[in-house]
Amino acid sequence: METAQGFRPHRVVVLALDGLLPFELGIPHRIFGRPRDAERRHLYEVVTCSVRPPGPVETDADFAIEVAHGPEILATADTVIIPASYELGPVFEEGVLTDELAAALAHIRPGTRLASICTGVYVLAAAGLLDGRPATTHWAEAEHLQRLFPRVKVDADVLFIDDGDILTSAGVAAGIDLCLHMVRRDHGTAVANEVARRTVVPPHRDGGQAQYIHRPVADPQLATTTAARAWALGRLHEPIQLRDMAEQEAMSVRTFTRRFREEAGISPGQWLTQQRVERARHLLESTDLSIDQVARDAGFGTAQSMRQHLQTALGVTPTAYRRTFRAGNGGTGIGEPEGHGGVGSLR
Questions:
Q1: pTM higher than 0.85 for the full model?
Q2: Is the pLDDT of residue 326 over 80?
Q3: Distance (Å, whole) CA 327 – CA 325
Q4: SS3 of 169, please?
């Protein structure tokens, strides 16, 4: 981030609450601690704070974490992330903030980007920040979240939701998806993909939470839809019919569609659109191809079709996306509203 005083990394402040899950606390540090610019400067600075003066914060494990910052540091944040906690007390049980937590949140400046991982969403909801807005959490808590906060538009099917200045994610590993999405939104696909490679995780996971909800175990001898997906990925630039994908698995269209949704959490058509959007993003960032050629190579056929799909998925036109995330421009999109409706919220 360039300021009048020169370069300054985007500051991410992680709010550590008693009962936190150490794994989720570590996600922002791991993901945002990696990205660097062409001059090898860290693009983000990650700090952790408590709602109390510096000191220990209890976890759900057999150890505590010593936190070096009190809540005052929240006033310096460009992004605040609230990981899950198993000891939210009245926040979880009654939907109200404790005085201590309310005082801590009061330090956050207007316009600061806010994000939650798993049940951290309860804090945002109790603060009234999600009224009338979409949000998600771990599928096991979604029904309770909706009952407690009826004005929140809870979506239990997605891995994360990008609503511009507030982002929420499902449980545990979905926090990785969310943080990678924010890096992608801020600095483009290439930077996010490099972070994913170094973290040894996929840069983007298909589908939503539906694929992780417990169901009766399928017969392991039954065919999957993996081969069809691999086949389609190699032909995104061509017209692909549902029956073409079903034939790759020697299934009827009906059986294939059911099996695909069980495995991916979304329909084959939705999955194809997601893959084509990702392909278009990559080409817009990394090539000088015309918008018409990108549309053809990504499988959208026409520039108008691609424009409509990118507008729906990313909230931005292809030309604006290329201008923001073109390789070498330093990732000028940080904090801008083009991130609305990120791909993780596609249904």
A1: no
A2: no
A3: 6
A4: strand
